[in-house]
Amino acid sequence: MQSFARFFGSLWLTIPILLSIAIILIMGTVGFGGIGLDLSVGALRKDWYRAWWFQGLLGLLAVNLITCTIKRKPWQFWQWGFITTHWGILMIIVGSSVSGMKKIYGTMP
Question: What CA–CA distance (Å, rounded) separates 14 from 8?
């Protein structure tokens, strides 16, 4: 269990995950990688952001945040900013995943 917490709660895992997510967000938003895909408004973003591998990256970041936060126990009063920030980011990840999976894309004439 210690090796799990050490690996998944490390900063050396956080940096590559965040860089990967940032690069994917940039590529999906700008429109790179759309070869063979529908390039209409929102279609490329839907194809990328709803993909299993992107959701897996978000899940890996969530596991990293939870492990990092729990690893810091016992929590002291001055660490509440750290705890609040990590749980806030975790809520944003959960909200974006739910929104991405339940969103309906379409156009109105």
Answer: 8
Structure tokens at 60: 């890996």
Phi, psi of 36 (to 5 degrees): 85, 0
Please give the chain's pLDDT, 109 residues, in tens.
Answer: 778 888 888 889 999 999 999 998 887 777 665 555 555 656 666 777 788 898 899 999 999 999 988 887 777 888 888 889 989 999 999 998 888 778 776 666 6
pTM over 0.85: no
Positive or negative: CA dihedral 82, 83, 88, 94: positive
Q: Who's near 95: CB < 8 A, 6+ residues apart?
A: none
